[in-house]
Design goal:
Number of strands: 7
Order of helices and strands: HEHHEEHHEHEHEHHE
Low-confidence stretches: none
Oligomer: single chain
Number of helices: 9
Structural class: alpha+beta
CATH class of the largest domain: Alpha Beta
Radius of gyration: 17 Å
Distance between the termini: 36 Å
Mean pLDDT: 92
Strand content: 15-25%
Largest sheet: 4 strands, mixed
Strand order of the largest sheet: 6-5-4-7
CATH superfamily of the largest domain: Beta Polymerase, domain 2
Shape: globular
CATH architecture of the largest domain: 2-Layer Sandwich
């Protein structure tokens, strides 16, 4: 079955293309192995390798080998680098910008983007998202979450709102109308629930 172009940016063939490019262009100082990109985006290794070949052929990325590793990074010396980076920031940016900002914060059990950005990511029709709504499950410090939201805003060029909810409230389900409403709509996972085993 053929994947539909993503509503966040229908110029791309798939959401995987948008996420891969977002990780590369919104972290231009980093180089990633194809395995790491697959883990970060949830795309298969085969998809990442295929798209990496296309990016390299188009001059969007540069590569080097380190043993068996194929290391890829954005080629920021091209005429399209700046406009592409700006476009990726306002479309697929939350997927690549928010996880590295939230992961170092202690007390986060899970984190999701919800609202209009998550709905567009899930290819539900609607207007372009004006802001990014993030739900953090856990006991993370509010000041640290505030700082992460401001840092994300600088990268994404739009307002980022982070709400915190306790694990007990998140587990309450139908007893909490806010939780029920959130769970009935698309959620994009930024930090998945950590295994207790």
């Amino acid at each position: 079955m053929r994947e539909h172009p993503p509503l966040l940016l229908p110029l791309f063939r798939s959401g995987a293309v948008g996420e891969l490019l977002a990780w590369l262009y919104l972290h231009p100082e980093q180089e990633y192995s194809t395995t790491e990109l697959a883990q970060r985006t949830g795309a298969s290794q085969a998809t990442v390798s295929r798209e990496a070949n296309r990016f390299a052929a188009a001059g969007l990325t540069s590569e080097r080998r380190h043993g068996n590793l194929r290391l890829i990074r954005a080629d920021t010396d091209t005429i399209v680098a700046k406009p592409l980076t700006d476009l990726l920031a306002v479309t697929f940016g939350p997927a690549a910008v928010l996880p590295p900002l939230l992961q170092p914060i202690s007390g986060i059990d899970e984190a999701y983007v919800y609202g209009s950005w998550a709905a567009r990511y899930a290819n539900q029709a609607g207007p372009l998202p004006r802001d990014v709504d993030v739900l953090v499950v856990g006991t993370a410090d509010e000041d640290e979450l505030y700082d992460a939201a401001r840092a994300a805003e600088r990268s994404l060029g739009r307002e980022v709102n982070i709400s915190r909810i306790s694990p007990a409230s998140w587990a309450a389900g139908p007893e909490d109308p806010f939780v029920t409403s959130l769970r009935s709509r698309p959620l994009y996972p930024l930090i998945r629930k950590r295994s207790t085993s």
